[in-house]
């Protein structure tokens, strides 16, 4: 996507995503609190202020917020659509991890019923959008949960402006080709007017899947089918960097920073913040840290790794296994290199509130983002936004979309290569202040100029233009 050249005046934006940005948490008899959910999409869209936005998404309960419109899905649909097709099939496949090993055959068998539930759930989202749609609205569908939605919406109203954005990588066409529903999914997405990805590579993979699997024509603008063009664009997400920078000035954050500095004085702080998910490469990161300690005895009492991992999908056996695996490795390393007064790894299985997170980012010397695959990775952006005083170093997986934007300032690593990551840790800890500053300044400029607001405005402006151009073409 290019920079927006005109700003729509408070256009209504219907953001359709699997989950609403808030969840209702019971705090007592008949007392419910609304809490903002953790996750990349929510963090990014919270920064979008240019539109009159409404959220449409799945909610367990009725949400008392007029900007949030719930979609109610029954338990069986959720099981087949969300746990099954979305999380067991599309998520690992789009991250090049393949189907879960233990139940690969069972997954293959239940494929058709899960895909049917996926389509049904997408139709239920479409029904809610249709009820609330007003002429002139822009409908922005998000992520791999809703690939069937553009088709449902356009069937109901061909003149609706529909955009679809994918937050994960779009894999190579060789991977997408293995999906039994490969063609139907691509055709449904192509019903949108604009299809967006974080990087040029993902956009290219999508276009080549359409040309190779559907036999359609790829053009520099997108994909053409019988004279109708679907625009395909790279439109990288950002964060609300001001929110992080402003938070650092708050007295409670300053107090938190003081406490952390005191707690870890005399030691360099390394930080990992991830959802506890296979794609984030947490075991690989911890093993690389172990290798670093093994090979650099002089650093053993001078560095600490803080790994904050929010548990997700806790009912899925594969995720439970990942949690125990991480605990086991952390325990072993702390037993091996810890002393009576200090351990090298502090691992927390929980979410941190925004202020605590900002304070942690600010006191960190080296951030470790070692995703095996990641659509973008906003943690790397958030770290950079909080580091203008300290100018810490970012070690970043070359398989995160963020490597395309922060690559010049970060130390890029292949997360599968533990020796390479261990060496990068040494390089980061020993880096001279001038080199750190140069790298940081590069990334800070990027993070503060390519923000979440810019991302959303660019996408919607591109979508408005695409629809106008298509109308002109039709008239000609
Ligand atoms: P996620 O996989 O959720 O997002 P990411 O982009 O890193 O990954 O965003 C995670 C968000 O959750 C960040 O805002 C972070 O602050 C927050 N978070 C993570 N761990 C936390 C913790 N322990 N405590 C508090 N907050 C925590 C998906 C894709 C990404 C893509 C985003 C946005 O997988 O690749 O960047 O969507 O498109």
From TrEMBL:
This protein's UniProt keywords: Glycosyltransferase, Transferase
One annotated GO biological process: trehalose biosynthetic process
Superkingdom of this protein's organism: Eukaryota
Entry's Gene Ontology cellular component terms: cytosol
Official protein name in the record: alpha,alpha-trehalose-phosphate synthase (UDP-forming)
Signal peptide: none
Gene Ontology MF terms in the entry: alpha,alpha-trehalose-phosphate synthase (UDP-forming) activity; trehalose-phosphatase activity
Entry's EC annotation: 2.4.1.15
Record family assignment: In the N-terminal section; belongs to the glycosyltransferase 20 family.
UniProt keyword Nucleotide-binding present: no
Protein's UniProt keywords contain Transferase: yes
């Amino acid at each position: 996507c290019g920079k927006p050249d005109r700003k729509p005046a408070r256009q209504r934006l219907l953001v359709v995503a699997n989950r609403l940005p808030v969840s209702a948490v019971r705090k007592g008899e008949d007392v419910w609190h609304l809490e903002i959910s953790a996750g990349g999409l929510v963090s990014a869209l919270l920064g979008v202020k240019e539109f009159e936005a409404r959220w449409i998404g799945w909610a367990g309960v009725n949400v008392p917020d007029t900007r949030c419109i719930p979609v109610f899905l029954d338990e069986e649909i959720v099981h087949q659509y969300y746990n099954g097709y979305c999380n067991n099939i599309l998520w690992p496949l789009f991250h090049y991890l393949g189907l879960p090993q233990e139940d690969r055959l069972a997954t293959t068998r239940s494929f058709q019923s899960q895909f049917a539930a996926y389509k049904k759930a997408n139709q239920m989202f479409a029904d809610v959008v249709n009820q609330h749609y007003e002429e002139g609205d822009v409908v922005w569908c998000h992520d791999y949960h809703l690939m069937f939605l553009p088709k449902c919406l356009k069937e109901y109203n061909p003149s609706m402006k529909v955009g679809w954005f994918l937050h994960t990588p779009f894999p190579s066409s060789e991977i997408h080709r293995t999906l039994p529903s490969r063609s139907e999914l691509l055709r449904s997405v192509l019903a949108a007017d604009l299809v967006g990805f974080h990087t040029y590579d993902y956009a290219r993979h999508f276009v080549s899947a359409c040309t190779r699997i559907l036999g359609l024509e790829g053009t520099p603008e997108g994909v053409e089918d019988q004279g109708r063009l679907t625009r395909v664009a790279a439109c990288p997400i950002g964060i609300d960097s001001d929110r992080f920078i402003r938070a650092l000035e708050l007295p409670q954050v300053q107090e938190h920073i003081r406490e952390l500095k005191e707690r870890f004085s005399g030691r360099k702080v390394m930080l990992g913040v991830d959802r506890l998910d296979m794609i984030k490469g947490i075991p690989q990161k911890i093993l690389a840290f172990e290798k670093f300690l093994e090979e650099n005895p002089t650093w053993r009492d001078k560095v600490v790794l803080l790994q904050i991992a929010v548990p997700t999908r806790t009912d899925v056996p594969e995720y439970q296994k990942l949690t125990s695996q991480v605990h086991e490795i952390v325990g072993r390393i702390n037993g091996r290199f810890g002393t009576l007064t200090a351990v090298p790894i502090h691992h927390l299985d929980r979410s941190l509130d925004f202020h605590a997170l900002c304070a942690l980012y600010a006191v960190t010397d080296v951030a470790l983002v070692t995703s095996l695959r990641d659509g973008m990775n906003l943690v790397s952006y958030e770290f950079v936004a909080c580091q203008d005083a300290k100018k810490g170093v970012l070690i970043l997986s070359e398989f995160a979309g963020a490597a395309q934007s922060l690559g010049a300032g970060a130390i890029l690593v292949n997360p599968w290569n533990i020796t390479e990551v261990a060496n990068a840790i040494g390089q980061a800890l020993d880096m001279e202040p001038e080199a750190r500053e140069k790298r940081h300044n590069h990334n800070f400029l990027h993070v503060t100029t390519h923000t979440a607001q810019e991302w959303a405005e660019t996408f919607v402006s591109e979508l408005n233009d695409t629809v106008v151009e298509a109308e002109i073409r039709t008239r000609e």
